[in-house]
User: Fold these one by one.
Assistant:
Number 1:
Amino acid sequence: MPYLCASDLPQAPAGQRLRALLARGGLLPLPGTHNGMAALQARAAGFEAAYLSGAAMTASMGLPDLGIITVDEVCFFVRQIVRASGLPLLVDGDTGYGEALNVMHMVRSFEDAGAAAVHIEDQLLPKKCGHLNDKKLASADDMCAKVAAAARARRDLVIIARTDAAASEGLDGAVERARRYVQAGADAIFPEALTSAEMFREFARRLPGVPLLANMTEFGRTPFFSAAEFEAMGYRMLIWPVSSLRVANKAQAELYAELRRSGSAQALLARMQTRAELYELIGLRSFEELDASLVATVLPPFEEPKETKP
């Protein structure tokens, strides 16, 4: 359920809590959570951190993932996920919403909203999903300036540099860019849209000691690998960016089709979250109990008037 009082909240900054999770070693799974409810469900399933995908955000708004939403719109999603779940949240920062000064503004805004980490990619606007064709890349110099600006602006935020260079510059180009991004101040590297286990292994081999993030998106260029397989290939973080949205959208489409066909949702009851399950997850009873304790009537103190002598 959501955190209600300040005493319930995690006390360390989100970035520090994410760094502590990474310091344990092994692979940290970060499932995509496209809203506060998804984040609550991820936490209930036992996940210790979460991811917010730009593609999932824009799709949930009925928009394509072309870098057309604003920093403030992203912060709305960050705040609801962090407020609901308290999980350290990695946020998709697209291309940084502009140049170096815009990146600094984004970093401070995301951190103030409660984010633990952000990744910035080396594409040019209009950017594309990393698994699509004909992506246009920024120069390595321009990307390094953005990474350096992000590192200068953050307090505790973990800065992850994403490179989309493998598709156009090959593995050599992606590795060289990654090395430069680390030198510019990136805490970790996200090589996007690698297409084989051999590429993942080689990328990790050529960047020893650098924390790496892998993306296991469906319907993309990367074959399916499990968390254990990515860990064995040398990766420290793993995201499933849009899976929650895809499953939810498919279920909603089937609901609307059934309503249109039969005029009733009764046939889908077994596939629905019940009222009791929803209330348990969002902590309705705790909210009601807290509200009752706060609004209970308290009479002002009353003292009998003292007798006075005439």
Number 2:
Amino acid sequence: MITFIIGGARSGKSRFALQLANNYILSKDGGRKAYIATAQSMDDEMKERIEKHKKERSDEWATFEEPLNISTLISDIHKSYDIILLDCLTLWLSNLMLNNKDVEAETRSFISSLSTIHCSLFTVSNEVGLGIVPDNALSRRFRDLSGYLNQKMAALADEVYLVTAGIPLKIK
């Protein structure tokens, strides 16, 4: 089962994803849980955000910090865990862009790799396309690539939730 959670910045999507994943695993009488974090602590503010997210998870979650190679990581661990929570795709996308990776190829590889996983996957992403059109090419490219990636994830997912103002809405 693949569940996709999308929402704006500070909408409560990560907290909801964690709650949903924990409830899912409880309904299956427990299981092994992996958390893939794509964020990088490049400044004090981001370090603080990462620490906050870590405190929200119990010690039952094995944490993998992987800013770039999530397809490989998922392929490596999916048989060892009953559930994987990936947070978040938009940070992964920005990491790829900042490292001059072929984003389209990485996105295709990621999406195709999900058809072979043997565990439940919960994936979090930001909805960045609801605001104004950005004033520069890099920001517009990021917005467009995010939209493309989010569409692919939503099409593949069994369930999709939009979280806004802390309220989840099941849309698929």
